[in-house]
Amino acid sequence: MKISVQKYDPSVDEAPYVKEFEVEYRQNMTLLEALVAINDEQEPIVFDYSCRGRTCGRCAMALNGQPCLACVTLVSENGANEVTALPGFPIVRDLIVDKSMMNDRIANIMARQRAFPLTLDEINAPVDPVIYNKMDPLEHCARCGVCVSACPTVQLMGQKEYIGPAGMLAIGLRYYDPYDQGDRVVEAVQNGLWNCIQCSTCDEVCKALEIDHQVIWKDLRAAAEARGLVKKA
Ligand code: SF4
Ligand code: SF4
Ligand code: FES
User: Domain for residue 233, yes or no?
Assistant: First the structure.
């Protein structure tokens, strides 16, 4: 099986370049397994992984231009296997990208906003199952960045103008959070809620199958609309 891998060391290379490898194919071989084989047996490649099962989000990259998680993406025995770093993020080295802008913004959002600390009654109160069912799936986001890379609005406007699906999801999580006292509806609008074209690409590429992005977008839009926070044409 042929596989081409993007390589780039900014300390010595002027630009990323592609190197071809031949790897012994086996049925249902994942991209991660192919990269490990090259790294172990042929030539070092800088990439990252941990869980091997769509949980840690560390193996995000692109195969044939499609953002994906290498651990759950199959390579093709006879077709094209062109591996590149995750598009839309600055490359650090080979297949490693810098996700710090995305992660910093998400970390800020995820910090629960409260005027006063939680009371004991609030801490001991049973969890409302409706709220639990809204929030729990969102906790499965691995912050892999695959949805951000694939989002056409991020591609058009950049992450500064549109926070992207992973960041909007974090806003949604705190919007559902009954203990959060921040104005998450205004935050969603300020971060580009109305720029999302509701194309569902984020749902198609996300391997955290528990998450339904469109439901979150719908809930946030309804709340924004109810307060007149609608984008003027
Ligand atoms: S929403 Fe899905 S694709 Fe996006 S960062 Fe989270 S886990 Fe990755
Ligand atoms: S639905 Fe919105 S957030 Fe998701 S990929 Fe499309 S434009 Fe981006
Ligand atoms: S290795 Fe953890 S998501 Fe792929």
Answer: no
Model pTM score = 0.96
Q: Which of 148, 197, 200, 216 to mutate to test the pocket of ligand 2 (most atoms within 8 A of CB)?
A: 197
For residue 57, is it within any domain? yes
For residue 7, what are the CA distances in angstroms to 46, 84, 202?
8, 8, 27
> Could you tell me if the CB of 166 is within 6 A of ligand 1?
yes
One domain for residues 78 and 162: no
Tens-place pLDDT, residues 33-50: 999 999 999 999 999 999
Whether 79 and 168 share a structural domain: no
Task: Let me know: does 37 contact 44? Beta carbons within 8 Å.
Answer: no
User: Could you tell me the distance, in angstroms and rounded to a whole number, from the CA of residue 192 to the centre of ligand 3?
Assistant: 29
Residue 230: what residue type? V
pLDDT tens per residue across span 66-104: 999 999 999 999 999 999 999 999 999 999 999 999 999
* Domain span holding position 221: 100-226
